[in-house]
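Support case: user asked for a sample of complex input and structure output to validate their parser. Sending the pair below.
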Amino acid sequence: MAKVFNWQLGRDIDYPYEARRPERQFAMIFDTNKCIACQTCTVACKTTWTSGRGQEYMYWNNVETKPYGYYPLGWDVNILDRHGVQPMDGPVYQGKTLFDAAPGGEVILGYLPEDIDYAHPNIGEDDSTGLMPRGAHLTLPHMQWMFYLPRICNHCTYPACLSACPRQSIYKRQEDGIVLLDQSRCRGYRECVKACPYKKVFFNTQTRVSEKCIGCYPAVEGGRQTQCTVTCIGKIRLQGFMHAPDKADPDNPLDYLVLVRKIGLPLYPQFGLEPNTYYIPPVHVPPAYLRQMFGWGVEAAIEAYRNAPNDRKLLGALTLFGATPEISHYFRVDGDTVIGYDSKQAEVVRVPIKEPVVIREVYDIKHKAFRTNIT
Amino acid sequence: MKRLAFLLALAVAAAAPGGPAAAQAPLVAARVAGHGPIVDPGAALWKSARPVKVAMLPQTVALPHKADAAVKEVSVRAVHNGGWIAFRLEWADASRSDRVILDNFGDQIAIQLPVDPKGGTPSPMMGNPGGRVNIMQWRAAFQKDIDDGHAPSIAELYPYAWTDVYPDELLGATDARAYTGALGVENPISRGRASPVLDQMAEGWGSMTVKPDQHALGRGVWTGGRWAVVITRPMVSDDANAPRLVAGDRTVIAFAAWEGGNREVGARKSWAPWMPLVIGAPAPRAKP
């Protein structure tokens, strides 16, 4: 085991390979407050990548309702239960990672789901934590709650799947940190399926090897954001690249949101993999739950997010979500406008932070017709 | 690094003259009549070969381990007809596992031979850098594919599955290749196979490679809670990554077994180190 630095945990962790951070890291931020679980992302991913034989059950992208939705069934509670209660206080994590918790003879603590666990991708959908008794009214955080959690492969800095493969069929690209599974090298041992705590590697019964989210690398190589991002009708996602914390660039929107403002938080950072998809936590959910899921930064993230209307640069970065199919490598707020730039500093998008309000009269004089509000 | 050091220590121990392999009673490949591949585990010719009981141990050196690996003993016989050498491996397995889905693993067995029998003996654990081995692995799932005439479709594995349309139904097989994952890149594990035995080479853990030329054949039959599997290959071929075996030669052989019902796969297996293998000479002709 090598000692590698995990910035999300504020300390070195044990990992089977030496640290070799990519030049830039594929990353994504989800604003959970805006997700409506329409599954347009899921379908976009499905029709793009997993429409073949043996991929029927695979959702490289899925959206589940928390706390009672899971795909596969119970994926997070199953590994959390095995992991045991860990202290969720920062800034230096004192608990065990999944590598620390590995039983004898294993690289990492994991479990292989049952085949049937994938049979209910929308289980728990829209289920709330309980009923609202008569007369109750919601305050923040809500006493009864649910929220939507969109998920893809985390393209971890220290991937569990990669560490568990006994024949190095999984690799992390130096140019963008995307984690890929070599389809010609894999022998279908399913060690990666067992090891990945997020359960984002899938076994294909027709090819008898495993497959995973490829971070839409053909699009990303061409400067475009992933399919799940560009098709999102709620504009809840921003995909791009981020740097290591010591090289954070406040003009890079992902660096700014994750590393500078810390409103995008990793999913289950205590597992130790340094996952690279980040979540703006839902403002209405009790912090104790969110702390287990996103770490000790949740209270501060929610506070900053709620103050965004008074925070020009933060609001500007949030306005870039869903604004363009291009990857914004840099951004700048200019008055009431946010401008996104590509890797060569050329402008790719310009969006008003506050959209102008247009009031349309009920009666359209030109067309001699009443307008009906159909929204 | 520790792993490598241990691997080398094992390799040295196995290669040492008079080491454990040399002291053991050898597996003798008896000369039998006939020509061509020997694939039938029920053939009468096996009676002419003396069975050797090989004790199998859980693999607990390379991660991951399966300390409770199920196969404890394999009964091995070997014969050759001058052109082909064959090994008949028989072991107890109460459950026949040949359906491979996420949480179902297949039964498998493998034999390992040094590619260069005259060189130093490679590590018994899949060889070592410079110490190349030829590993022939029979898989129950491949055997079932061959017996059925095809690999199981989604409809056969999941009778209630429903899909509106597949890319190959719209695009044709060639254009739909991009949607076929490992099949599209001709991963030998995925491909439809003519033989249930993978002819492979390795130079240490994680280096297993299915050879471009496949020479190994075989057949497995499960009856009454026992597998009987034959693995056969030409004694001499134009394959530089296979041993050349001639009557009278002495070499070594090692074994690995996986019980699918016990979720054994890859490194989670039982194995046996090198034991001596003697290629029997023809029986002297009786004087008239």
